[in-house]
Amino acid sequence: MAKGYAVSMSSLFRRLVVPAAPAIQRDTVRLRLEESEIDVLRVRDPRARRLKLSVDERGVRLTLPPRASLVAGERFLQANRQWLVQQLAHYCRDELPAPVRLNQPGLLPLRGALLPLRWQPGRFAQVVVDTDGACVQLPPQAGEPALRRALREFYEAQMRADVGRWLPRYLPGLPRAPSRLRLKVMSSQWGSLAPDGSMALDLALVLGRPSAFEYVLVHELCHLLQANHSPAFWAEVETRFPDWRAERAYFRSQGRGLKSMLRQVLQPPSVATR
What we know:
By secondary structure, this protein is an alpha/beta fold. 40% of the residues lie in helices and 24% in strands.
């Protein structure tokens, strides 16, 4: 009893002395840029010390410190409109297909192609590829969450099929197979290999051309031999995948677009607020 009392008092003391970190607040605003409008993710971050505007494959983000007013944030956006135009052009966001919208015809990116998208009622949510493109089957009551889960599960299944087809070709000559495969959305990397041998691959890989995806798989497998990017590592890659330079160049030119397309497919169209 005394021991349990001491533990509970210690826990209470930590909660009193170390306050919980303030929550980060997020919402979305609309901004007019020349002939179009964009969504801007507005984030009030207790750790921020100044107003900050950033652009990446996920879109535009405005960070406000705790005491900055919304008016100050709006003025900051307006003052940097031309910079935003230039940055968004650099990310080629105008070349992306239209977002996937529930029960509306569209295009679904897969393996370097854009598949015509159609809809059918079904007993459960799933995506099926056939000679006519991609078909989303949804129960009548299914909404956005069910759609986005089905799309993610579809991409994961497609990726696992590709890895399962390629992996046996490269296992000879390796000390072991990866201990585990994780498929995830990665902000900048395309893959990684942990010290325990588990491999992570970016889900956006299945949207690009298959040879680029295969190169990333080979790249990570070679880290089982060389846990670095030394000349010896690249020699291992060269032996197994001689055209790796072309695929690396592909990611440098198309990578941001692939990551943007993935986020656009997996996230429902945002609703702007003021």
